Amino acid sequence: MKILIPLKQVPDSTVRVKVAPDGTSVVTEGITWSISPYDEYAIEMALERKDADPSTVVAVVTVGPERSRDALRQALAMGCDEASLVRAEGAAPLAVARALAKVVAEAKPDLVLCGKQASDDDQGFVGPALAELLGWPHVATITKVVPAEGAVELWREVEGGHEVWKAPLPALATVHKSEKEPRYPSLPGIMKAKKKDIPERPLDALGVDVAAPTWTVVSMEPPPARGGGKILRDGDAKQIAERLATALRDEAKVL
Amino acid sequence: MATATAETGFDLALSEEQELAQRSARDFAREKVLPRAAEIDEHGKIPPEILREMGALGFMGTYVPERYGGSGLDAVSYALIVEEINRACASTGVVLCSHMSLAVDPILHHGSDAQKEKYLPKLARGEWIGCFALSEPASGSDAAAMRTTARRDGDSWILNGTKNFITNGSLGNLAIVFAQTEPGQKHKGIAAFIVEKGTPGFSVGKLEKKLGIRGSDTAQLVFESCRVPAANLLGELGQGFKIALSTLDGGRISIAAQAVGIARACLEDSLAYAKQREAFGKKVADFQAIQWMLADMATEIDAARLLTWRAAALKDAGEDHILAAAEAKLFASDVAVKAARDCVQIFGGYGYLKDFPAERHYRDAKITEIYEGTSEIMKLVIAEEILKE
Ligand SMILES: Cc1cc2nc3c(=O)[nH]c(=O)nc-3n(C[C@H](O)[C@H](O)[C@H](O)COP(=O)(O)OP(=O)(O)OC[C@H]3O[C@@H](n4cnc5c(N)ncnc54)[C@H](O)[C@@H]3O)c2cc1C
Ligand SMILES: Cc1cc2nc3c(=O)[nH]c(=O)nc-3n(C[C@H](O)[C@H](O)[C@H](O)COP(=O)(O)OP(=O)(O)OC[C@H]3O[C@@H](n4cnc5c(N)ncnc54)[C@H](O)[C@@H]3O)c2cc1C
To answer: Which of B20, B28, B59 faces A77 most closely, judged by CB atoms?
Structure first.
């Protein structure tokens, strides 16, 4: 089975996000970048398939700026077999999905695994859009994949249990979590990845325009600084409970 | 890398694989080791799964060539990894330092092909842990005054004596043991042996109770008519002391990296605390007295790290690194001890409590000024190097 994972490089979860002076973007100078966490789960899920069946081929691709090469290298170091970069600055999400559709048409994977959303914009757009462009079945937020004769069983967590869906191949699923935590690249994995080439081409080489119908950010604000709490001390339990109820209704407006 | 070599010029950029190695080690250390550091210190034991995973990630054989089952990276990558593990936990860090720099390294550099093939793959994968047995109850800094003897008997050597303070001594599966084959000849009569755990006559004596790095085992090793096959002589007869010294040159880079890791823990913990603790209506970080401590820490850590990287880069380039390693260890260990003292101070009363990491850093930092050559011995080495021209 060939599994393709489109991944996105995003600010690392340890980065303290700051709004840039333009008020519509975040400061990216000097920050650490990582593979988006749900994409990492997708990689881990695919690599677990590969651990179980070494004939599995796991490929990763990203549509992004030159710096996203580091994310691809990291995916190779985790154990992926192939990686390629479609170079684009600020491509609209739909343009990303269109570019990926071309990549899928060339690479002919049996299964595409996307993270359920990227941790920067949290749009959850590219996976379903790509399935739509490909005309493939799409199963959202899976936690496990099990091959079945020409098809895959896809597990989803639901309230109090799980559901198992079956999709004919080729199919696309978005990943919520893998069974194990994503593996760290081992040093031998890093050395193996070093020997691999990461081919690269610009977005327009795929005949895709960087522009597409999309949203724009109007403004961005950090959450307001949290005020200090309030302690209700005076009076007996009944009086304090009354004042608490009043405060919750009139001040916090949660009742 | 800050090297003095003509080919590399002056370039501080890490290679892609060095960065990836650093990142793997950092993520692993932060997620798997740091949450258990207080418990490791308290119970005096490192959970075996942590060491197993370090082996699986290839850390235990960082710069062992791939053909011997190692990871095939370099001494700079190793210094990066050592810093990251020690940032999280100095007890876990020193297991790696002693194993890799003091046991794996001498086999790699002085071992016969047969010895390398026999021992390196197991050691590099972390299936076996190694230790280095030089110090004795009556000889530390003056290691050549050792009393352990090795006497030839047919196809074996018979070892007798006691080694003291041996890191990984009870955890380890293999020891590099130094002994006098010609008592009275001092350093000229010393040889090195590879001795496997389980060899009759080789036993582990008492475990030391310590101020810091309490999760790391420090054991006495006892040799009583311990018969070691002649094939386990490491290097030549009479070369043991040279092997010990050149091994320690590399080991000092590793301890310098450990010290940088401990100092960085002090800085990062201090920054986080000072930004949220309030006194006199301000964040403690707003007081200049605190800012100056933080500024000194940051500057000294950078300087210590650069000295460490330079020494590692020289080692990778196959150049003389005696002076660079001694300078790095002398400076970095001093930086760590000072950073730990200031970290406790910045935490105020909480710095003195077990509930916060500052007091652990304070106890852990001190050892870096003692083992693998005390600070006084570092100055002795440095002075000898700069005076010899
Ligand atoms: C936790 C721990 C782990 C260790 N791990 C190992 C290990 O794995 N393997 C191993 O072989 N050893 C190990 N050691 C031993 C360590 O290397 C020695 O403790 C160290 O070399 C100092 O030797 P000593 O303790 O005998 O001190 P001494 O040599 O007795 O020194 C006492 C003091 O005198 C000073 N001094 C000595 N000679 C001179 C001189 N010529 N000029 C100026 N000052 C001098 C020293 O700097 C020190 O301040 C470990 C020690 C500890 C505490
Ligand atoms: C073992 C122990 C026993 C104790 N016993 C007692 C006791 O019996 N009775 C009692 O009342 N208390 C006791 N204390 C509390 C002790 O007096 C306080 O911990 C100490 O006064 C520091 O206060 P703090 O811990 O709140 O630190 P903070 O006041 O939060 O200080 C944190 C850091 O900020 C610095 N700082 C604070 N303000 C300024 C400033 N204006 N300018 C520059 N730097 C500043 C401090 O020097 C310190 O480095 C004890 C503490 C310990 C650890």
So the answer is: B20
Instruction: Answer yes or no: do A129 and A253 share one domain.
Output: no
| Same structural domain, A249 and A175 | no
Instruction: Verify that B345 and B263 share a domain, yes or no.
Output: yes
Task: State whether A122 and A231 are in the same domain.
Answer: no
Ligand 1 atom with least separation from CA of B213: 1
**Centroid of chain to Cα B225:** 30
Residue A179 lies in a domain: yes
CA distance A51 to chain B (A): 15
Whether A169 and A232 map to the same domain: the answer is no
Q: Number of structural domains, chain A?
A: 2
For residue A94, count other CB atoms closer than 10 A to its CB: 18
pLDDT in tens, chain B (389 residues): 344 455 656 778 999 999 999 999 999 999 999 999 999 999 999 999 999 999 999 999 999 999 999 999 999 999 999 999 999 999 999 999 999 999 999 999 999 999 999 999 999 999 999 999 999 999 999 999 999 999 999 999 999 999 999 999 999 999 999 999 998 888 999 999 999 999 999 999 999 999 999 999 999 999 999 999 999 999 999 999 999 999 999 999 999 999 999 999 999 999 999 999 999 999 999 999 999 999 999 999 999 999 999 999 999 999 999 999 999 999 999 999 999 999 999 999 999 999 999 999 999 999 999 999 999 999 999 999 999 97
- Contact between A190 and B27 using a beta-carbon 8 Å cutoff: no
**Cβ A137 vs Cβ A131: under 8 Å:** yes
Give the structural domain span for A90: 2-206
Residues of B designated catalytic: 372
Give the C-alpha separation, B122 to B73, whole Å: 17
Q: Are residues A148 and A229 in the same domain?
A: no
Q: Do B71 and A74 touch (CB under 8 A)?
A: no
Q: What is the 3-state secondary structure (H, E, C) of B321-371?
A: CHHHHHHHHHHHHHHHHHHHHHHHHHCHHHHHCCCCCHHHHHHHHHHHHCC
Which residue among B74, B99, B129 closes a domain? B129
- Whose tokens are 């000229």? That residue is B188
Cα–Cα dist A91/A87, whole Å: 9
Query: Which segments of chain B are extended strands (E)?
Result: 130-133, 149-153, 156-167, 174-180, 190-196, 202-207, 218-229, 233-234, 278-279, 282-283
Cis preceding linkage at A170, omega within 30: yes
Rounded Cα gap, residues A175 and A39, in angstroms: 7
Count helices and strands in chain B by DSSP H and E runs:
12, 10
Q: Are residues B10 and B68 in the same domain?
A: yes
DSSP per-residue letters across B271-297: HHHHHH-EETTEEGGGSHHHHHHHHHH
- Cα→Cα distances B123→B52, B236, B365, Å: 12, 22, 27
Pair of tokens at residue B31: 């997620």
Residue among B16, B27, B73 whose CB faces A187 most closely: B73
Token duo for residue B136: 């004795």
Measured from the CB, is residue B132 less than 6 Å from ligand 1?
yes
Q: Which residues of A touch B73 (CB under 8 A)?
A: 187, 190-191
> What CATH number is given to the structural domain containing B221?
2.40.110.10
